Amino acid sequence: KQEVTQIPAALSVPEGENLVLNCSFTDSAIYNLQWFRQDPGKGLTSLLLIQSSQREQTSGRLNASLDKSSGRSTLYIAASQPGDSATYLCAAIYNQGGKLIFGQGTELSVKP
Amino acid sequence: GAVVSQHPSWVICKSGTSVKIECRSLDFQATTMFWYRQFPKQSLMLMATSNEGSKATYEQGVEKDKFLINHASLTLSTLTVTSAHPEDSSFYICSASGSADTQYFGPGTRLTVL
Question: Which residues of A touch B8 (CB under 8 A)?
């Protein structure tokens, strides 16, 4: 069964800290891995998409890595800000045009 | 670009009534649309996948007669929750993908069934 797990479920850090969110997937034969941000009561905003042939993607203060062999992806947030407070979801895609399999999310709180 | 809208953003209805939620791709043609539901503090669970002009494919455990999906055009899909009950109260999110296979998500619809 294809499952995605995120650890930790919640994380609270002081402003300015660098942090890492973890995502693991049971089936390593993924097509893409995607990270999203969700604010309370809102939809999803795509942050980064890593194709299976890539090892990482960067956008501003965000860096996502992918290690297919170990079934893991990490989202690194540098110099965290209160505005980064949200739930971060990772999702695995196993074939082109296929469905997204989501992890449970990590609820991040960055305190000023 | 790649904007997806949902309407309504929230709805409250009485038990036993039906509710229709619309999902529109505003600036691209969506060959495939996906419907998800999300309970509080939980992740998104795919309910069904719909391709324009054909019947939706439902995930295991999702009642197709209760959650009616219509994808009549390349820019519009609708989800109708029939005979809604309090346990159907949830956050419903759609996504749409075009030729690039990337899914773009709508802002979600909060359904509360009294």
Answer: none
| Distance (Å, whole) CA B109 – CA A104 | 19
* DSSP assigned state of B88: G
CB–CB contact B105 A44 (8 Å): yes
- Chains A, B: CB contacts under 8 A, how many? 43
Q: Report the alpha-carbon distance of residue A112 to residue A14 in Å, rounded.
A: 6
Cα–Cα distance, B109 to B89 (Å, whole number):
10
Nearest C-alpha neighbor of B49 from the set B69, B63, B67, B65: B69
Q: Which of B73, B77, B49 is nearest to B62 (CA)?
A: B49
Q: Which residues of A touch B6 (CB under 8 A)?
A: 43
Digitized pLDDT (tens) for each residue of chain B, 114 residues in all: 689 999 999 999 999 999 999 999 999 898 899 999 998 888 899 999 998 888 899 999 999 999 999 988 999 999 999 999 999 999 999 999 887 668 899 999 999 999
By CB neighbour count within 10 A (0-12 exposed, 13-18 middle, 19+ buried), where does B14 fall?
A: exposed
Nearest residue of B to residue A43, measured between CA atoms: B107
Contacts A46 to B, Cβ<8 Å: 102, 104-105
| B32–A103 CB contact, under 8 Å | no
3-state SS assignment for residue B61: coil
